[in-house]
Design a protein that fits this description.
With 218 residues, the protein is an alpha/beta fold. It has helices spanning 72-86, 96-107, 150-156, 163-176, 192-197, 208-216; strands spanning 2-8, 11-19, 25-29, 51-55, 89-94, 112-118, 183-185, 203-205. It has six helices and eight strands; from the N terminus they run ββββαβαβααβαβα.
Length: 218
């Protein structure tokens, strides 16, 4: 496994190259509190092109910032930095990585060829509707500068996922992308935001292996 370090804003991101090859690249985005796989996952072995995996800020081998401040949009910026390094990609996102992948796809519809959303930590976030305000606190003895950052776990697990916000990103993909089948729902979990986007004609349900076979042919 080859690791590329990307300087991005105030973070140093670890981008891992799991597989070399010719053709379209696959980018794996992990779930909340997890890190990139060290080898190609079994469901991605159908992929013939290059395979990369990104450690989000505060996770894996990427840097841990002081004081938190995590949002899904900030992690989307991490993934956008990886996109700028790799070029055109398909995304395989687990849990939180699936939601972040949707945000990136909606922001870069001409540079992302497809997204497969998998089960994993952080898929639900804090739900689709605002709740009573609460003060997040992480004990000082848990803040040792190592990943996963406790602030990431606290903040991203309560991050609100409005369904109409997710629908807007799918609308961008449909309007500006070129794919008839763009977002594959491969998860058993169906949080509110995921149920909302399933009404779009470019969103379809399929096992992950079949989704990657479809996207690899684009």
């Amino acid at each position: 496994m080859k690791t590329i370090l990307l300087e991005h804003v105030r973070s140093r991101l670890a981008l891992h190259e799991l597989q070399d090859g010719d053709g379209q690249s696959l980018l794996i985005l992990h779930g909340l509190g997890q890190s990139s796989p060290t080898s190609v996952p079994s469901i991605a072995q159908v992929w013939q092109g290059p395979i990369f995996a990104l450690d989000f800020t505060g996770h894996g081998q990427s840097s841990v910032p002081a004081g938190g401040g995590y949002t899904c949009e900030a992690l989307m910026s991490d993934a956008d930095a990886a996109l700028a390094k790799i070029g055109s990609i398909t995304i395989l996102g687990y849990g939180l990585g699936g939601y972040v992948g949707l945000l990136l796809f909606g922001s870069r519809p001409s540079e992302v060829n497809g997204l497969a959303i998998m089960d994993g930590p952080g898929l639900d976030g804090g739900g689709g509707q605002p709740t009573s305000p609460k003060l997040l606190h992480v004990p000082d003895d848990e803040l040792n500068g190592t990943a996963p950052d406790p602030w990431a776990l606290a903040e991203l697990s309560s991050d609100i996922r409005p369904p109409d916000y997710a629908e807007e990103h799918v609308g961008q993909i449909q309007a500006l992308g070129s794919q008839d089948k763009a977002v594959a729902v491969c998860s058993l979990g169906r949080p509110e935001w995921l149920r909302a986007i399933s009404n779009s004609p470019i969103v379809f349900e399929t096992p992950a292996e079949q989704a990657l076979e479809i996207f690899s042919a684009i």
